[in-house]
Specification:
mainly alpha; 0% strand
Length: 459
Amino acid sequence: MTTTGLVAIDATILATAVPTIVRDLGGFTSFPWLFSIYLLTQAVSVPIYSKLADTVGRKPVILVGIGLFLVGSVLCGVAWSMPALIAFRAVQGLGAGAVQPMAVTIAGDIYTVAERAKAQGYIASVWGVSSVVGPTLGGVFSEYLSWRWIFFVNIPLCVAAASLLVRYLHETVERTRHRIDWTGGALLTAGLSLLILGLLEGGNAWAWASAPSIVSLSVAAVLLVGFVLVERRATEPVLPLWVFSRPLLRSTALVGVGVGAVLLGLTSYVPSYLEALLHVTPLVSGLTLATLTIGWPISASQSGRLYLRLGFRTTALIGTSVVVVGATTLALTSARPTLWVVGLCCFLIGVGLGLVATPSLIAAQASVGWSERGVVTGANLFARSMGSAVGVAALGALVNGHMDGLDATQAPDLFQQAVTAAFVAVAVVAVGTLLAAASMPRNGPPAAAHARPDSPPDV
């Protein structure tokens, strides 16, 4: 729970401080990189960490992740420019790539499917607390101290999380030799980096039809095709393609892509949208956004009762339907924003995400044994991170295309139109996520809900 708090607070604390950071460091058109670069390094490192966790154990991997997250947080706190802050966010992302999937994987190792519902409730409570603490701290630091404290606050949390894991997590794992697929990892990183570069800078730093745009997107496509070819022949692929050949794992991965895109799409733009158009303080915009992350843990903590009674697919369909309603309402009312409408829509979307994210992940975990659970968990969270990274980049391209180099304070009416377009795109993604949930194999309640998880001795 303490380890999850690192990622949970970071997910909400930065968004409210973005306008303040932009005023201090400049670079309005570059601020989507603060989210995309973090999510990119997190996403591409998740499969590597997950593979290592299935061979050397979860504990050393998660401790390395906490260390990297700590170093990245300190560097972000002392950043002197927007490019430097973006670079240091990449280091943070490398740490988060180990922290988030390992926390979930360890819970999957220790508890049965039925017990995981209760355990996920405890973990969800962390997101609930963070959803209030994160935006509040972000607003308070931005208004009364300095935005740099949103990164320094991670230092005691990292120390506490590492200390608890060293003291209480004991596992005995049979060490095996492993071969890291560095070629696949390099191709994946380079391909996704160029894809996000093309999306964020196209129509901004250069025209969409210009040579840099065409080259970056074309080379990205070639590198990603090369990645798939390498993974088909690699002895120990960084992202095993068999994960996406199984109907349940493929559909839950697609759900993860949609969840990530919806979550970060709203997190990135709701605070700036409220501050620019309603002239509210960072604290107020943060608390409005908090309704999103309050709704998520409330429903996630109760999702176990639903999927144990109705099954994973039905629960995910209920959740995605709620997300579609919330996202569509937000898009339709965005031309005349009010705090209570935005807050209510965010709450509904959060409730829906909680009913789809947790059941779909546990469905994937429950379909495999211990030796594959790390890879499956990593692949699912990789899909969610990629949805977030590419989603934020695509929305950034959409908003920047409308703004034509201006920032929100210079052209609030133009910014309102740009964000409305972004919210419409989020609603479209929500519909796609509903279709992905519908493609999950039909099943009833999990039959082996109370079976002990197969795990190495002494976990």
